[in-house]
Amino acid sequence: MSDEEGHPRRWAILVALCAALLVIVIDNTVLHVAVPAIGDAFDASTDQLQAVIDAYVVVFAGLLITAGVLSDRYGRRRALVAGLLVFGAASALAAAAPSVWWLIAMRALMGVGAALVMPATLAVLVVVFPEQERPRAFAVWSAVASVGMAAGPLLGGALVDMWSWAGVFLINIPVVAVALFGVVRLVPETRAPDRRGLDPFGTVLVTAGMTGLVWALIEAPAYGYTAPAVLGGAAVALMALIGFGVRQRRSAAPMVDLRLYRDRRFSGASFAVAVMTIATGSTLFVLSQYLQLVLGYRAFETGLAAVPLAAGVVAGSTVGGRAPARFGPRACIVAGFTVTAAGFVVLASLSEGSGYVAVSIGLALAGVGSGIAGPSATSTVLGAVPPERAGMGSALNDTHQQLGIALGVAGLGSLLATVYRGKLPDGLPDDAMSSLGATLSHARDHADGGALAGAARSAFTDAQSVTMSVGVAAALVGAAVALFALPGRATRATAPDPESEEAGQRG
After folding, report:
1. What is the C-alpha separation between 320 and 312, in angstroms, rounded?
2. Which residues form the Major facilitator superfamily (MFS) profile domain (predicted)?
């Protein structure tokens, strides 16, 4: 297999990798519409329901770098198979959960499986596709992820309405089976040729640091940014990550090559995407509350709202996969983020009287922009990474996105809650002000419940508009970073430093 021609079965391999990706994306979006049913089934508190969602995200983000390095050493196909097996088994056990704590534990185990799968998919694509075809491959990868994002809420809403919350986990099992079959039959085994030794202490440091950082970001809105637990988690994360960075700089064969951040392609595209995901990561979560609790749609109807977003990404990806060869990745990223900003302008204008049309237009524009920008951003980041370290590079790319999502959940979640509470009528108890759902539940037992419910829906809609306005700013910042930090045309990945390679072999 030559670098110029690629693997002869690369498009069939892409299908198998997309099937593996699909199960992760479906699970990540399917749960949002099932949260109310899970709360009723286990009489779970708001904190417990948040933990059901957070356990997956925290473990997933915390293990990405370690999983990427492991895939480089032991093989990307092996990582895919192991991750899918863990994910499928944990999904089956989650569906049979006897308690909410068991469910939280299985969600964490699913995060382990997802961390093994995600960076390996992109790493294999880098190896089997020639450089000129990678934007098209990444466009297909992004489009499939978006279809899964739309299918998750739709399937989840249908299963919750017709059956129970357990269906959102059982749906993973057949998808895992199909993905496993394709990976075993089609995906070649690839690994780093030097197979450098593992650093157990460095692995512990980076895992503890990333886990603590994501946990602190996600939990800060619930417990407060000055809460001892949040400050403690942030302190542990900071010390662990500083220790990891020092260790990597002194290592002859580091797990993560920090010199990548000196490359404008890598650092510029990574920062732009991270800023963008700050806004996009929490969009569906906010809008699902708006559609169900403000407009009164059922779970399945709420799931339909993701379809325009996915369709927009698919449409945008057809452009994003081909345009970089003609206009360059920088122009595609800037144009895509600008279109996404237009979508957030529409979402920021939503009112209590808006319906599916306005939501659909806003999400479709956001999706088109992501579809145009995504392939170029991913190609730019991974193009700066030597192919033999593709697992590490893919893990860093995924980690930047997860950190952006975590920052969005923490920052925009706090902003939404703060604006919402500030616009509620005076005199409400604290527990009735924690969320729109809590306020509406309190209103049902209130003498003037109708007026209170109306005031709560109006307050949430105003808070949502403020949050989506931040999304506009984030998209424009991402476009500005891409415009000034990235080169106009793609360039080849920098070859590894020979002295570093020789040192690594001696180590």
Report:
1. 12
2. 13-490
Tokens 């992820």 -> residue: 145
> pTM of the prediction?
0.80
Query: What is the DSSP track for 249-264?
Result: HH-SS-SS-GGGGGSH
* Rounded CA separation 110/59 (Å): 9
Quick count: other Cβ atoms within 10 Å of Cβ 78? 17
Q: Are 34 and 156 in contact (CB under 8 A)?
A: yes
CB-count exposure of residue 283 (10 Å: 0-12, 13-18, 19+): buried
Q: With contact defined as beta carbons under 8 Å apart, do 54 and 207 qualify?
A: no
With b meaning 16 or more CB within 10 Å and e meaning fewer, what string describes 102-122? ebbbbbbbbbbbbbbbbbbbb
The residue among 409, 15, 423 whose CA lies nearest residue 183 is 15
Locate tokens 């809590």: which residue?
A: 438
Q: Give the residue ranges of DSSP H helices in 44-133.
A: 46-74, 76-95, 100-128
> CA torsion 428→433→436→440, rounded to 10°?
-30
Averaged pLDDT, 304-309: 82
Question: CA 355 to CA 18: how far, in whole Å?
Answer: 33
Please state the three-class secondary structure of 44-57 as a single string: CCHHHHHHHHHHHH
SS3 351: coil
Q: What is the pLDDT of residues 384-416, one digit of tens each?
A: 888 778 888 888 888 888 888 777 777 787 888
Write the single-letter amino acid at 243: G
